[in-house]
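Final paragraph of the annual report: two paired records, presented back to back.
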Amino acid sequence: MQLTDTLPTENNISSSATSKLFYIDNLKIALTILVVLHHAFITYGAPGGWYFTDKTTHTGALIPMTIFVSVNQSFFMGFFFFISAYFTASSFQKKGVARFTADRLKRLGIPLLFYSFVLSPVLSYIVYRFAQGHRISYLQYLSGFDGWIDFGVLWFVAALLLFSLIFVLIGSVVKLQKPRSGKAPSALVVILFAAGLGIATYIVRIVFPVGWILKPVGFQLGHFPQYIAIFCAGIMASQNNWLNGFSLKTGKLFAWLAGFMILVVFPVMYFVKESTHSSIEDLCGQGHWQSFMYACWEQFTGIFIMTALLIMVKYKWAGQSAIGKVMSRAAFGVYIFHPLVLISLSVMAIGWPMDPGYKLLIVGPLAVAGSFLLSSILVKIPGVNKII
């Protein structure tokens, strides 16, 4: 068993120490699949930016695509930060400042450099050559390429590296306590946390609306209140052993609340948007009341989903199969290389005589399977397996 302590796997934790945390690995697998599908949905119609798009115009397909990416965005990247942070304090205490910092620079910094200087221009060339039809060689394309600093999907890795280095600075000054058993937050505390996060998100989006990107690192600062808060929550959960303090009953409560936010509140919010003739930009920020509505929906939904999954997966999906072990080991590689697989497949599918909405049903699953297959091969390569 190899367990995450960031998004990469921690290779030196004994199986006896991690046998009770298979459910964390299972969550990591599910979240990684969601990342691939999220970008596949954007490719074929959902709102969002991506290297290559082939958008459907059918409303019957666009609505579920939009719901899927909206719900995803509310929690899946924040959840990655939580899982990463959950193992940060223990790793820091075990390794010390120098070794912990060197480990993070190696396992997060090298993928950033690889993606920016090797993979990113390849991805751009595939689209330029095979989707846009410019018949030039790769070397000719590189001679005019100017987007060398581009972290793409690895903005998360860049943010995680930044958060980790800040944690090192704090941990060097404030002595961390050993993990202890503490009372898990009550349902009311979690709800109040989500409410506060919704307000904070609305305030930040007055200046940094959704879609505003800090270049060249790719940070959408409008989402960072959640990422920062959840990273801190992950460290606190680890230090106070919160994950063992939640009951299945609490998990079911938050599953119902999440379902209510998606199935009831989201349609109501959409009706309000349409009836008031509000634009997407109104929902994204700049102080509009619609932005407050959306920010609160997003944070309540995301926190409820994260809490429900953390609890219910522990009780319902605590074991791991041989395939699950392979997929868990490959997850970080999938995160890095899935754009290559997805873009290649979607470009190959340009000429298929069908609506893009139907292409999603084929390309999406193939992209997931192909990304895990590619990564499972790469992690067997000496040297590469020390990074991913």
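The closing record of the year follows.
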Amino acid sequence: MSEHDVAPDRGQEVLRLQGLRKSYNVGKPTEIEVLHGLDLRLQRSDFAALVGASGSGKSTLLNVIGLLDQPTAGELFLLGEPTRGMAEARRTALRGSAIGFVFQFHHLIQAFTALENVLMPLMAASGKPTPAQAAQARALLAEVGLAGLEQRKPDQLSGGQQQRVAVARALVTRPALLLADEPTGNLDSKSAAEVFQLLRRFNREFGCAVLLVTHDARLSGQCDRTITLVDGSIESDTAASQERR
């Protein structure tokens, strides 16, 4: 974080779910409700794991939180703004500015350099990046340990390095919320630990709330909070002891 950045209020509420429900095939004989009245809050200081067995609704919940899908009932507030009835153009803009995404597979564009991949969210929002934005992207690549590799294309980087580029890309808009879906699931243990520590550091330094979906008990055990989803309902939401933080 540069000396010109203003640190966000780490106590600010980033996300609030109120009675959130999600059904598919609504109004048809095959209608099924996947998420059942979820209540959840995340602040900028939160570094939380979302865990649950396959089929528990984690992916559906992540898509709804990421404004990629809409709830059937209830409300989702992002930075205090209700989103369920929001116009699609506003949803797209809010998603682009307030949410960062990191997936198990980095989804980098192979024809682009590392720097160009990091700049993609800014280019999608406003076209050609400004010199200041390019400098910000370079600084982020340096932050994730890739200084000097800005012009390399994905096939010239290791798997761990490619995932670091994906982390930098997710953070280039300085989002209030980072959604990480099995971000270390395709990495060796050393690279996985390094990517996890990067997310930890950005949570502390940038005040970016992190919601980490993982099947790895070692990773969820290092998070400050664990939210357990069972059959579309939050079974538990527990904070780690101070000794583990």
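The two ends are 22 Å apart (CA to CA). This concludes the annual technical report; the extension proposal builds directly on these records.
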